[in-house]
Write a structure and sequence with these properties.
Blueprint: H1 8-19, E1 24-26, H2 28-32, E2 48-50, H3 54-66, E3 71-74, E4 91-94, E5 101-105, E6 110-114, H4 119-126, E7 131-133, H5 145-151, H6 158-161, H7 164-167, E8 168-174, E9 180-183, H8 197-200, E10 209-219, E11 224-231, H9 234-246, E12 251-259, H10 260-269, E13 283-290, H11 294-308, E14 316-319, H12 323-334, H13 338-342, E15 348-352, H14 358-372, E16 377-383, E17 388-394, H15 401-412, H16 433-439, H17 442-455
Helix pairs in contact: 14-15
C-alpha cells in the first residue's frame, strides 16, 4: 500500500500548528468550502494565519522567512487584479482579526484602526460623531483599511480629498525581515526626512504587511440632494461639475459619469425607467451635493441646473425626490455586476486621465478598439471629476493572448501621453503585470525593483505579482 505524501500546504499547516499553538490557523480543509472573494485562486495556497496583533504577525513573518515560505497578505479579498491570489506552499496572512477601531480623536479628526477594519464599519462608528472617512467606494462593506492602503484606493471622493495616500497620517507594518515599521503619527505636518510610509502605501503587500493605520477624518454631511443629468459630452459634465463646486452653499459629494451604453444597460438590468432621458444624450452625470438641509440642498441644486441648462448643454435631468430614489440612482452606477453576468469574460480596466481629456481619449480608444475588432464594444463609466474611467470590453468571449494584447493596446495607448495612468485605483496584481512592464517609465521600474531588493531580498512578499522583484 502506497501512502499519499502530504501536500506543500498540509506540510506548512502542520509545521505552523506546532510552532504557533496559540495562533488561529486555517488549513486546506478549512479553506476548501469558503468563498474566496473576487478571485477564485485567493485561497489556492491552502494555509491561512490570522494574527491578532502586530507582534504575532511579526513572529509569523520571521517564521516564513526562516522557512522560505512566501507570504501573501489578504484583507477583504475585494481586489480586482489578482493581487491577493495564493499558490501552494505560500502562507496567507489575513488581517481579519486586526479589526479594532482603537481610538477616535473626534476633536482632532483622526482615528487609529487595525488594518482589518472594514470601511463601512468605520464609517458607521464615526457617523454619530458627525464625522466620516475622507474616502468612499462601492465595496465599502468588505474592503478593509489595510487593503485600501496597500492598493492606494481612490473612490468617489478622490476629486475632493485625494486617494488613500492623502488620507493616511500614520502607519504600522511588518517588513519582510520581521521587523516592525512603526510611524503612527497623528499630524499632517512632518518634515523629518523622507516619508517612508509611502513605500508601503500602494505597494500591494510587496514591501510590508500593514497592521495599523492613522487616518484623517472629514465632516459628515448627511443632508443631500441627488440628480441624474443627461449631457452631450464629458466636457459639458466637467463644466457643470465645476459650477457646482463653485457654489458656496453646496458641497459636491459625488460626480459620476456613465456613458450611454453603460447607463442604458445598467438601467435595463435594474428595472429603471429611462423615458425621461433625451435620445441624443452621450453620457449621464450622477451628481450629489450636500447643504444645510435636504430642502436647501435640493433647491440650490435645482437652481444651478436651471441657471446652467443651456450653457452646460443639459439635455435632460431628474432630481431624486426621496432617499429611496437617490439610492436607486446610485445603484445604476455602483452595482455593475450585470456586466459580468452578460459578458462573463469581459476584460476590465481602470485608467485615469486629466478630466479635460476624457472626450478625446474615449473617442480615440473606441476607434482603436473597433479597428482591432469591429465586433468589440465597451462600457465606459467612472469618477468624472478626477478623470478615473472604468472600462469593460464586451462581445469578446474567451479572448486569446493576441486578443488580450490588442485590447490592452486599445485601452492604454496614449494614456501616458495625455498625462494619465494605466492604473487608477485597482493596483497591478497579476492582471496588469504586462501593462506595468510596457507602460511604466523604465527608470521608475528600476527604482521600484531596487527598493524591493533592498527590503525583500528573498522575494517572499507577494511573489510573482506586482513586478517589483
Amino acid at each position: 500500500m502506497t501512502l499519499a505524501m502530504p501536500s506543500p500546504a498540509e506540510t506548512l499547516f502542520e509545521t505552523l500548528k506546532a510552532a504557533f499553538p496559540e495562533t488561529i490557523l486555517q488549513g486546506p480543509e478549512d479553506l476548501a468550502g469558503r468563498a474566496p472573494g473576487e478571485h477564485p485562486d485567493n485561497f489556492a495556497g491552502g494555509v491561512m494565519a490570522l494574527p491578532a496583533s502586530t507582534e504575532e504577525a511579526a513572529a509569523l513573518i520571521r517564521f516564513a522567512r526562516e522557512n522560505r515560505a512566501p507570504v501573501v497578505a489578504q484583507g477583504g479579498r475585494t481586489g480586482l487584479v489578482g493581487g491577493g491570489i495564493s499558490r501552494a506552499g505560500e502562507l496567507i496572512l489575513s488581517t481579519a482579526r486586526l479589526n479594532r477601531i482603537e481610538a477616535i480623536h473626534a476633536e482632532e479628526r483622526t482615528v487609529t484602526v487595525g488594518a482589518g477594519v472594514a470601511l463601512e464599519a468605520l464609517q458607521q462608528a464615526l457617523h454619530p460623531l458627525g464625522l466620516t472617512t475622507g474616502i468612499d467606494l462601492a465595496s465599502r462593506g468588505t474592503a478593509t483599511i489595510g487593503g485600501m492602503v496597500s492598493t492606494n484606493a481612490g473612490g468617489i471622493l478622490a476629486f475632493r480629498n485625494g486617494v488613500m495616500r492623502h488620507q493616511v497620517l500614520g502607519l504600522e507594518a511588518v517588513l519582510p525581515d520581521g521587523s516592525v515599521f512603526s510611524d503612527l503619527t497623528r499630524v499632517i505636518k512632518v518634515s523629518a526626512g523622507p516619508d517612508l510610509k509611502h513605500l508601503i502605501i500602494g505597494g500591494e503587500g510587496a514591501f510590508g504587511f500593514v497592521t495599523r493605520v492613522v487616518l484623517k477624518l472629514e465632516t459628515r454631511n448627511p443632508e443631500r440632494a441627488t440628480a441624474l443629468i443627461g449631457l452631450p459630452s464629458a466636457g459639458h459634465a466637467l463644466r457643470l461639475t465645476g459650477a457646482l463646486q463653485a457654489r458656496p452653499a453646496l458641497q459636491l459629494e459625488g460626480a459620476e459619469l456613465m456613458w450611454a451604453h453603460y447607463f442604458h444597460d445598467s438601467a435595463k438590468n435594474h428595472g429603471f425607467d429611462t423615458g425621461w432621458l433625451a435620445p441624443d444624450t452621450t453620457a449621464v452625470l450622477l451628481t450629489e451635493v450636500s447643504g444645510e438641509s435636504t430642502e436647501q440642498a435640493m433647491e440650490a441644486l435645482e437652481a444651478v441646473l436651471a441657471d446652467l441648462w443651456e450653457e452646460a448643454g443639459i439635455t435632460s435631468g431628474l432630481v431624486a425626490q426621496s432617499l429611496t430614489q437617490a439610492r436607486k440612482f446610485w445603484q445604476l452606477r455602483e452595482e455593475a455586476g450585470f456586466i459580468y453576468r452578460e459578458h462573463p469574460d469581459a476584460p476590465s480596466f481602470d485608467v485615469s486621465l486629466p478630466p479635460g481629456s476624457l472626450d478625446r481619449y474615449v473617442a480615440d480608444f473606441r476607434a482603436r478598439l473597433k479597428a482591432a475588432n469591429p465586433v468589440w464594444d465597451a462600457y465606459v463609466y467612472g469618477h468624472m471629476a478626477d478623470g478615473n474611467l472604468h472600462i469593460s470590453i464586451t462581445h469578446v468571449g474567451h479572448a486569446s493572448e493576441t486578443d488580450k494584447l490588442a485590447i490592452e493596446a486599445a485601452v492604454y495607448d496614449g494614456v501616458r501621453d495625455l498625462g494619465g495612468s494605466f492604473s487608477a485605483e485597482h493596483g497591478i496584481g497579476t492582471e496588469k503585470r504586462h501593462a506595468w512592464l510596457t507602460y511604466t517609465d523604465p527608470v521608475k521600474r528600476n527604482l521600484a525593483q531596487a527598493v524591493k531588493r533592498a527590503l525583500d531580498p528573498d522575494g517572499l512578499f507577494n511573489r510573482g505579482k506586482v513586478p517589483f522583484a
